[in-house]
Please model this.
Amino acid sequence: MATAQPNLPQYDAKKVHFGFTLASNIGRMQLETRPNLFAGDTLRNVSVANFPGIGLGAITNFKLGKYWDIRLMAPVISFVQRNLTYDFDNSQKVVKVESAYCDASLLIKYKSERRKNTRTYIVAGPRFSFDFGSTVDKTRGIQNPVVSLVPFTYGWEAGIGMDIYFEYFKFSPEIKTCQTIGSALYRDIYPYTQSIEAIYPQLIQISLHFE
Model:
């Protein structure tokens, strides 16, 4: 009985591959409030609500060895929304924090042994982001609350995925977490930012890579 041949048997012999990625994400923010947040004020709590977003980008993959690759993810455009809810004694105020990121990531990819038409992998590396939707220049005030993140941030990302070889292309579903290093809060003189010590944007991302 003949054994079926694997798809794309010479795929991993090539030094460079190109592709694109489609992604969905959940934007999150790790929030640190000021120690004296509730002292002499009507503000009682600040909380974060997370929302789904989308992304689209390019992939350039360089082979280092049998089990190692370098993957450049750039540019990747991601749309992210998070809401801050401020609970006062007799009222509540919701402030939208929306971002349109242009991301670039340089990742090390470690791959398992290929088994027929599949293999698993892990990736990790630095990530750099510029927020074209930053509101740092937006007019703000007591009655016009704005909470802004600085336009440029950097951090790291790490994830796991699976390469699936089809007849004409490789498909790779992947899940990863992205963490910002350092606070991204843009501080102003109004209580909506003065009540916050630091904001660390985070992202949980599910991607579908096509190469």
Remarks:
- The chain is about 0% helix and 65% strand.
- The chain has one domain: 14-210.
- Residues 14-210 form a domain with the Porin fold (CATH 2.40.160).
